TrEMBL record, chain A:
Superkingdom in the source lineage: Bacteria
UniProt-recorded name of the protein: Uncharacterized protein
UniProtKB/TrEMBL annotation, chain B:
Name of the protein described by the UniProt record: Ferritin
Main location: cytoplasm
Keyword Zinc annotated: no
One Gene Ontology MF term: oxidoreductase activity
Span of the signal peptide: none
The organism's taxonomic lineage, starting at the top: Bacteria, Pseudomonadati, Bacteroidota, Flavobacteriia, Flavobacteriales
Length: 106, 172
C-alpha cells in the first residue's frame, strides 16, 4: 500500500497489487476504483461551501455524502468538507491526473 | 506509483471538467433549438421549424461526441441537467439573432477549452477539439447567411413567408 496523499482527517492509498485505491475516512476505510474516485471528486467539488455560512441554505452545516453506488454514507461537517476538498485536489495532482495549481493559474 | 491512475485515464481532470461543462452547453443548445422549433411551428414558419428540429438533433450529436470521448479516455461523463429554456421570441428575426448569439457563445467556450488544454499539456483533448473548432465556423456561417438573407428579403408584406421558404436552402 502506497500513500498518495494525507490531509488532516483523510488519507488516500493505492494498492500495488490491485487496480484500486483505499480512502481512509478515520472511522472507516473504503475501497474504490478510479471511476469511483472520479465520482467522489465530482460530488465533493460540487458542494457549495458558501451554503455552510448561510443559515437559511444549510441550517446544520453538514453534508451527506453517498459513495460507491450508495454503498457508503458519510455525514461530514464544514471543516471535514474543506479538508476533503483539499485532499481530493492534492491527491489528483499526486496521481498525475491534475495539473499543478501554478499551471492552472496562468 | 502514478501508473494505475494514468493507465485508467488519458486526459487531465481539468479538461474533463471543462468538457462536462461543454456537454451541458450542447444539451442546452439542443433544448433551446427544440423550443425554437416549437415557436416556429406555432407561428406558421414551418420550414424554419424543420431547420431547428434538425439543428436540435445536431447539437445532441455534439453532446454525444464529447460524452463518448470522456468514456473513451476513462473520464467520468455527467448527464447534464438542462434548465431555463426560453420559449418566447418577438419575431422570426429574433429567433435567428438569438441562434447566432448562442453559437458565438459556444465558439468562445470551445476556444477556451482548447486554450486551457494547451496550458495543461493535454494534447489529446486539444486535438479532439479540432473538429469542434471547424464545426463552429460552419455553424456561425450558416446563421450569418440566413440573417443576411433576412436583411435582403425584408420583413414587410410577404417578406416573412419568403424568409421562411428560403430557409429551406440551409436544410441539407
Ligand atoms: Fe454544438
Ligand atoms: Fe451549434
Amino acid at each position: 500500500m502506497v500513500e498518495i496523499y494525507r490531509s488532516k482527517y483523510y488519507s488516500l492509498h493505492q494498492a500495488l497489487g490491485e487496480r484500486a485505491f483505499y480512502l481512509d475516512f478515520g472511522q472507516k476505510t473504503i475501497r474504490m476504483s478510479l471511476c469511483q474516485l472520479l465520482s467522489l471528486r465530482h460530488k465533493v467539488m460540487s458542494i457549495s461551501l458558501e451554503s455552510h455560512f448561510d443559515g437559511a441554505l444549510n441550517k446544520h452545516g453538514v453534508e451527506v455524502l453517498l459513495l460507491c453506488n450508495k454503498e457508503h454514507l458519510f455525514i461530514l461537517n464544514t471543516l471535514e468538507i474543506i479538508d476533503l476538498k483539499n485532499m481530493v485536489e492534492h491527491a489528483f495532482v499526486a496521481l498525475g491526473l491534475s495539473a499543478e495549481r501554478e499551471v492552472l493559474a496562468v | 506509483m502514478k501508473d494505475i491512475a494514468r493507465q485508467s485515464m488519458s486526459i487531465k481532470v481539468e479538461s474533463m471538467d471543462l468538457l462536462n461543462a461543454q456537454i451541458k452547453m450542447e444539451a442546452h443548445a439542443s433544448a433551446s433549438y427544440l423550443a425554437m422549433a416549437s415557436w416556429c411551428e406555432q407561428n406558421g414558419f414551418f420550414t424554419s421549424a424543420k431547420f431547428f428540429f434538425k439543428q436540435s438533433e445536431e447539437e445532441r450529436g455534439h453532446m454525444m461526441k464529447i460524452f463518448n470521448f470522456l468514456v473513451d479516455t476513462g473520464g467520468s461523463p455527467i448527464s447534464p441537467e438542462v434548465t431555463n429554456i426560453n420559449h418566447d421570441y418577438a419575431s422570426i428575426v429574433d429567433v435567428f439573432e438569438n441562434t447566432l448569439e448562442h453559437e458565438v457563445k459556444v465558439t468562445k467556450s470551445i476556444h477556451n477549452i482548447v486554450r486551457k488544454s494547451r496550458e495543461l499539456g493535454d494534447i489529446t483533448t486539444e486535438r479532439f477539439l479540432d473538429w469542434f473548432v471547424m464545426e463552429q465556423v460552419e455553424e456561425e456561417n450558416t446563421i450569418r447567411d440566413i440573417l443576411d438573407m433576412i436583411a435582403i428579403t425584408g420583413t414587410e408584406g410577404v417578406g416573412l413567408q419568403m424568409i421562411d421558404n428560403q430557409v429551406a436552402n440551409w436544410i441539407e
